[in-house]
Write a structure and sequence with these properties.
The chain is mostly helical and 217 residues long. The termini are far apart.
């Protein structure tokens, strides 16, 4: 135990830097996934059949390919086609795209829970389709979807570890380098697990709060 505490004091500053990158990557990828998720839902409900087909195709393809393969494609294959992205941006795009299809399902479920009477009231007030979506359907749908979006956020936090495979200096990557250089595998990976757990605790509390608020509304 004394040896572990000594290792913790020595390794914590480096791992904390990696955790900061992990949190930054989580926030950026979460924002992108939500934006794309809204796009897929709106396209999936469009009157033009081509947009509906494209949305369903994207969701099916992205959901069927492992996240690590998507990251490898963005980081290693796209440069061959003239698009060379820095590791962090590639990680944000890869994770954001991968999780956008799950966010689309979250948002679609939230929209399905919107009271149809409110939509009919908006139509009765003369709102066009765009205004109705912007002022009624999406805001209320996102509110209903908040608990499931929060749960997806925790999954995304943990899956940022996959980004270590494209050299992003997040928590897992920093831990791997420490383990290689010090041979203290047990201490390093125990600390990594503790830091992920500590980071997920406030997110879990946020999810429970959102679930309670959702039951009250």
């Amino acid at each position: 135990m004394i040896a572990f505490l000594a290792d913790a004091r020595a390794f914590f500053p480096v791992l904390l830097q990696g955790l900061m990158v992990t949190l930054e990557l989580t926030v950026c990828a979460l924002s992108l996934s939500l934006a794309l998720g809204v796009v897929w839902v709106v396209m999936g409900r469009a009157r033009f059949v081509g947009l509906r087909w494209f949305s369903q195709m994207v969701i099916t393809v992205v959901r069927g390919i492992p996240i690590i393969v998507q990251l490898f494609f963005i980081y290693f294959v796209l440069p061959d086609w003239g698009l060379d992205l820095p590791p962090f941006l590639a990680g944000v795009i890869g994770l954001g795209l991968a999780y956008s299809v799950y966010q689309a399902e979250n948002i679609r479920g939230g929209i399905g829970a919107v009271d149809k009477g409110l939509i009919e009231a908006g139509e009765a007030l003369g709102m066009n389709r765009l205004t109705l979506w912007r002022r009624v359907v999406l805001p209320l749908g996102l509110r209903h979807a908040l608990p499931s979006i929060g749960s997806t956020m925790i999954m995304l936090l943990k899956d940022t570890s996959i980004a270590s495979t494209i050299t992003i200096a997040e928590l897992t990557r920093e831990g791997q380098l420490l383990a290689i250089s010090t041979f203290k595998n047990g201490s390093v990976y125990a600390l990594i697990a503790l830091l992920y757990f500590a980071a997920s605790l406030p997110l879990g509390a946020l999810v429970r709060m959102l679930e309670r608020r959702g039951r009250l509304t």
